[in-house]
């Protein structure tokens, strides 16, 4: 059975819970990722001849399973890892962590239980990588990437530098043109490679592969990079470790000069203070600073940039992530920057949002390098992408729409007002080679200018109303319906009340036509796309599919007004991540007939059955949701249950009403309400028995009897609901195996996928009316009262206060 990505991610993350407490995330990641590596290579290669990885006797995951519950489990795991490492030239990589470390894993029984539980999580039959056949989609590599991100978040500010956010890596891989790499004779190099994620994103873009080189100072991080390469099917990647790239570069030509590469990428430590340790840059034998200048002693940003430039072939492309300071800092850095610009090496600069990176909250930029076309370059292409992001916990994150827009605009060299433009060298020279992005791309999101005359004399400025010109182009007569001329020229007033603005917009014929036209655009795309999706066969590549779907959707909405096509694109990508991705992996590996399968869900952490729809507990269709089967084939049965649930809800409402009316110390229900403010049936029955023959309690008895009657009706209806749910559950379970392939395709593609996307896109269209309503209300409220009117009201209030004070004896 195919592994769902979401299932894989959550299962592996559970392993981390076994290690929390004894160490922080920067340490326990090493243990979890090593076990993930052993599990994967054992599943894929154990017992196979001429396999990519040799799994020796005593060095497989099954050997780790045999150690569960044994007092010497930590020592046994170390021995198994050592055997696997020796068989595959992985010494110092997978055996770099100590599974017998009492300081981190506990002593005696604590270590025994912790490691046994950890191995048991990876032993889960649902994590059998032998059935991962979608090789081109790199299921495990994605899981590794997911874990690296999680670890970076948990590691905090000081220890998250081993990981470059995948979104930023993706942008870099796209903008340097890695997809144009011809074959393995071409090379990519990262002088500060961390866990290798940036290198792998570049490699993933190349259609025929590329040869990978990387250097990393930290041994444990370099070990992560090597494992990462193997898990991404890049075992020949050359990752060197233990030396600083600046003081001791390890990739050299036979004559001792720096090796050069076709692509160079990097996310070096920002403003690295110790960059000069181990060598004297004034006498650099590799001549990296010659003709440019020596960077400041306490800031290594330009040292890395110059090393990258020196490591590029004459036709090479590259990109480096650096703090914004490199764009405008003065003194020695200003001179270096000028020399780099004059040589034409900088093709473009992409300004990123702040707080993207795990090592620092400061904003950074991507400097895109191109030596091949340097001689003819006359400008630098800039993008200000600083405002495109989403909050993700305590960090910011680029959304799929942000990535796509950056890549499309950069690769297309498209100028967009307030977002991107070509900066001629003459303009840069005029600004003394300062590359600070706001100097060249002004922020268009300015606050509304306050019109003093309008505040004094009333009216809404026409120039503010014209700021909504995009709406008036789509709905020309809507403006006249919303506004009418004011008594002064150049000003208007609302033609309707503020409360009626939204209704006016939504019901206006031009807006309803606009809404219908855009929905038709989606329907045309959905019709064509549904047909293509239903023709998917096993073995297709889900990643290639979603890329094609996204590009088609962008093209479809390319010329729509008011709606940002990238917002529409994001809805597709969100739904892909949440639902469609898992479905496509199942279809790719097991085919459409996997839709015949229904799964009995495990109970949650509190022992309760998980629900797919109200009432049907513990069932989940592998491709087709239980709720969809119910709504499509058992509408009457579901309506009957819904009707009973509505009756049940009315009973609960009546019980709450009675309780609310008769609670309190003197209330008629005070004797049956417990300290937790609950009323139980037994308490009501007991109280009725106590007072039933006493005429003093007639009113209380009447209320209690009604409450008891409601308890009994509630129990009857619950019993009836349970019975009908069981009947419906049997019918649903019986229905799944009878589904034909065509029925499954219709249910999944049309009823599940397209219906969800349709609702999202319809919601985006309706948001337009909400935005316009909100902005018009803001304008109207800003100028609703003139200053003289406010002053008169203040005087009225002052007069009233003085009168009250006089009556109270405080007047003068």
Q: Concise description?
A:
The protein is an alpha/beta fold and 812 residues long. Helices cover 50% and strands 10% of the residues.
SSE topology sketch:
Elements lengths: L4 H13 L7 H21 L15 H5 L7 H15 L14 H4 L3 H14 L16 H17 L10 H10 L11 E4 L6 H9 L5 E6 L2 H13 L6 E4 L19 E6 L34 H10 L1 E12 L8 H11 L3 E6 L12 E7 L8 E6 L5 E3 L2 E3 L2 H13 L7 E5 H6 L21 H6 L2 E2 H4 L3 H6 L3 H5 E3 L5 E4 L6 H7 L1 H25 L8 H15 L8 H26 L7 E3 L10 E3 L2 E2 L1 E3 L4 H8 L1 H28 L18 H11 L6 H38 L5 H42 L4 H21 L5
Parallel strand pairs: 1-2, 1-4, 2-3, 4-5, 6-8
Antiparallel strand pairs: 5-7, 6-7, 8-11, 9-10, 12-14, 13-14, 15-18, 16-17
Helix pairs in contact: 1-6, 1-7, 2-7, 2-10, 8-9, 8-13, 13-22, 19-27, 20-21, 20-27, 21-22, 22-27, 24-26, 25-26
Describe this structure in words.
This protein is of the alpha/beta class. α22 packs antiparallel against α27. A hairpin with a 2-residue loop joins β9 and β10. About 1% of the residues have low confidence. Among the domains are: 155 residues, N6 adenine-specific DNA methyltransferase, N-terminal domain (Ferritin); 278 residues, Rossmann fold; 104 residues. It is globular and about 110 Å long. The longest helix has 42 residues. The strands form 5 sheets. It has a 9-stranded mixed β-sheet with strand order 3-2-1-4-5-7-6-8-11, sandwiched between helices. Strands 12-14-13 form a 3-stranded antiparallel β-sheet. A two-stranded antiparallel ribbon has the order 9-10.
């Amino acid at each position: 059975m195919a592994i769902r990505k979401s299932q894989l991610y959550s299962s592996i993350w559970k392993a981390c819970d076994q290690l929390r407490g004894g160490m922080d995330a920067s340490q326990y990641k090493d243990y979890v990722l090593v076990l993930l590596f052993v599990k994967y290579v054992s599943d894929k290669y154990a017992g196979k001849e001429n396999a990519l990885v040799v799994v020796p006797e005593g060095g497989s995951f099954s050997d780790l399973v045999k150690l569960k519950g044994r007092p010497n489990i930590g020592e046994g795991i170390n021995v198994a890892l050592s055997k696997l490492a020796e068989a595959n030239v992985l010494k110092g990589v997978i055996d770099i962590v100590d599974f017998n470390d009492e300081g981190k894993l506990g002593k005696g029984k604590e270590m025994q239980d912790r490691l046994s539980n950890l191995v048991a999580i990876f032993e889960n039959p649902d994590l059998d990588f032998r059935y991962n056949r979608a090789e081109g989609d790199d299921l495990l590599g994605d899981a590794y990437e997911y874990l690296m991100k999680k670890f970076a978040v948990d590691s905090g500010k000081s220890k998250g530098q081993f990981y470059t956010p995948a979104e930023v890596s993706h942008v870099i891989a796209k903008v340097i043109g890695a997809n144009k790499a011809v074959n393995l004779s071409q090379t990519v190099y990262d002088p500060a490679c961390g866990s290798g994620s940036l290198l792998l994103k570049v490699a993933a873009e190349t259609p025929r592969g590329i040869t990978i080189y990387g250097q990393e100072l930290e041994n444990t991080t370099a070990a992560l990079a090597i494992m990462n390469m193997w898990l991404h099917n890049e075992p020949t990647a050359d990752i060197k470790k233990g030396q600083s790239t600046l003081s001791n570069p390890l990739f050299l030509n036979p004559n001792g000069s720096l090796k050069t590469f076709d692509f160079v990428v990097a996310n070096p430590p920002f403003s690295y203070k110790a960059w000069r340790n181990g060598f004297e840059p004034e006498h650099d034998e590799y001549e990296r600073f010659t003709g440019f200048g020596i960077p400041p002693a306490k800031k290594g940003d330009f040292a890395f940039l110059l090393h990258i430039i020196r490591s590029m072939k004459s036709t090479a492309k590259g990109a480096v992530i650096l703090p914004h300071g490199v764009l405008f800092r003065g003194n020695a850095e200003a001179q270096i920057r000028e020399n780099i610009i004059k040589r034409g090496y900088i093709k473009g600069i992409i300004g990123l949002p702040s707080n993207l990176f795990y090592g620092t909250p400061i904003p950074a930029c991507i400097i895109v390098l191109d030596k091949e076309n340097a001689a003819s370059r006359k400008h630098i292409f800039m993008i200000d992408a600083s405002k495109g992001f989403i909050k993700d916990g305590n960090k910011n994150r680029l959304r799929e729409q942000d990535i796509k827009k950056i890549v499309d605009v950069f690769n297309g060299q498209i100028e967009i007002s307030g977002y991107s433009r070509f900066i001629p060298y003459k303009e840069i020279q005029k600004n003394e080679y300062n590359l600070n992005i706001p100097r060249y791309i002004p922020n268009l999101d300015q606050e509304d200018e306050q019109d003093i005359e309008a505040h004094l004399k009333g009216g809404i400025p026409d120039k503010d109303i014209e700021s909504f010109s995009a709406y008036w182009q789509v709905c020309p007569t809507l403006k006249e319906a919303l506004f009418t001329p004011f008594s002064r020229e150049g000003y208007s007033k609302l033609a309707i009340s503020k409360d009626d603005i939204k209704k006016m917009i939504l019901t206006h014929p031009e807006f309803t036509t606009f809404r219908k036209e855009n929905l038709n655009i989606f329907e045309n795309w959905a019709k064509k796309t549904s047909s293509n999706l239903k023709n998917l066969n096993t073995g297709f590549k889900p990643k290639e599919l979603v890329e094609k779907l996204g590009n088609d959707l962008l093209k479809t909405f390319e010329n729509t007004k008011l709606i940002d096509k990238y917002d529409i694109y994001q809805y597709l990508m969100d739904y892909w991540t949440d639902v469609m991705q898992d479905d496509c992996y199942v279809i790719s590996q097991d085919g459409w007939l996997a839709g015949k399968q229904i799964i009995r869900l495990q109970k949650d952490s509190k022992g309760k059955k998980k629900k797919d729809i109200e009432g049907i507990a513990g069932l989940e269709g592998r491709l087709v949701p239980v709720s969809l089967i119910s709504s499509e084939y058992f509408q009457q049965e579901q309506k009957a249950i819904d009707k009973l649930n509505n009756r049940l809800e009315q009973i609960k409402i009546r019980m709450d009403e009675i309780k609310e009316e008769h609670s309190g110390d003197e209330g008629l229900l005070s004797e049956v309400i417990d300290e937790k403010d609950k009323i139980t049936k037994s308490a009501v029955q007991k109280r009725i028995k106590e007072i039933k023959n006493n005429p003093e309690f007639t009113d209380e008895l009447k209320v209690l009897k009604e409450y008891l009657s409601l308890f009994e009706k509630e129990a009857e209806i619950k019993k009836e609901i349970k019975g009908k749910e069981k009947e419906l559950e049997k019918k649903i379970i019986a229905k799944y195996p009878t589904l034909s392939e065509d029925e499954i395709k219709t249910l999944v593609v049309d009823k599940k996928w397209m219906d969800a996307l349709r609702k999202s896109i319809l919601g985006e269209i309706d948001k337009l009316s909400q935005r316009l309503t909100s902005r018009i209300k803001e304008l109207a409220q800003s100028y609703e009262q003139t200053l003289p009117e406010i002053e008169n009201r203040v005087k009225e209030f002052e007069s009233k206060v003085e009168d009250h004070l006089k009556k109270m004896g405080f007047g003068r």
